Amino acid sequence: MKWLATVVLVLLCTVATIARAQFATATPGLAQETQARGYWADPSTGLMWAAKDNGNRVSWHKATKYCRNLRLAGYRDWRLASIDELEGLVNLRAYAPQSVGSVDYMHWNFGLQVNGGLLLTGERQWSSSPELDVSGRPSGAKFWYFSFQEGHREKGFEDWAEGDTMQALCVRDTNAAEIPPPNDATQAVVPSPAEKQNPGQDAQSPAYWTDPSTGLTWTVKDNGKDVNLGEALMYCHDLRLARYSDWRLPTIGELERIHFSNTESSGPASKEDDRPITDRVTGNLLLTGDPWSSSPVDEESEWPSDFVWYLNVESGTRVFDDPSYDHARRALCVHGSKAQQALPANALRSEAISSSGAEGSAQETQLRGYWIDPSTGLMWTAKDSLQRSTWWDATKSCHELRLARYSDWRLPTVDELQAIYDESAEAPGENPRTHWREPEPRVFHVKGNLFLTGDQLSSTHEDGESGSVPKYLWGFDFKSGNRFKDNPDRRMNMRMLCVRRSGE
Fold this sequence. Notes:
Mannose-Binding Protein A, Chain A; 20% helix; 4-stranded antiparallel β-sheet; 4-stranded mixed β-sheet; 3 domains; single chain
């Protein structure tokens, strides 16, 4: 076995040597020029990079201090690069890609070759980007770094006494002042530093669009990659475009509105990162993935919420997810006051009509928070609990619910649940995230466009021998239209809707 291990080691060393020689000589002229000059100006972003990193592994604070004290090419405004800027240096030709299904993995940039012929003395480079919590604020002492050997970002730990140590690569901005845009609704403008962190942003394409029906101004493209909610909030907060500095993440109603007007057609397809992208929203906005909203699922709760809505572009419906989940959704930014009406004008009805029993749209139901069944006069919560509940917890939660100024909510009976089942109805709902499954839209056969995420608990039960503890409780399946019973002691994967008698 020793001779086999030796052969494998020799082969690996040979591959590494060949790869290093190949990558190191890929653009020898540019590398020599960069090292002789001492810096490289990236023509695609306008950023000026130091020709080499600091040369040794240091803590994050020392890396930041090194770049802040750097004096190079007559400039004093050098800084530690952000994680997006570091990621933008990746030279894909330096990696050996491996395709596993529909996912491409990059393996082993042995020569640490990056764009511009920069010299890296270590494969891990600190960034200035902290890990962000769900509200967009730095959390703890963790900062992102980029592994140029493996081709992906990771989180590093910083502590004055102990912590991770890595190299520092410095950068400075050379962008000219932005050109004031003309008065047209959609115009091309000079990209800002925040925009230029997104390699997919095309400086020659329109950069923003103003919706004439709401007066809101939208970025034409999203950020181009999956981020958690905190990173999405910070991306929009830091965006500088069209002379505006108050860009924000939109509400779920605003996202639903721009999608609603074009659900039956799609715009021109394009390509980015070798993946097809399709315009599916009004204004020719280009979405490369499902965008986050700033709306917590429970609008009455304090921010941040346990769950936050995002828009599923494929189905055009809202879905919720854990805001702290790393690299889950995209960021599409908007400028302007929050729309008073988050629904298309031709879909809006007055509160009097809606309250009298008209089902309305899914957007209306969720915006209002409840739906009144005209056939029974019962008022239902617009969505279920979104997570599994025990029978006792569900009973208590409905009793304690305060919604639409009413305090007499309760758990419905199984007959009441069955009365809102409609085989022809297709209300948007969701299969929530689990350890083995991404969240995904799901259709339920329920009236009123109620937002469901699973089977529903009822207050109907069969008493046990003692009479104090139910022997069985009844639930209802809005996929099949069947009622069923189960043991109340088992923590079932069931949700709860709450109901009350309207007009009382």
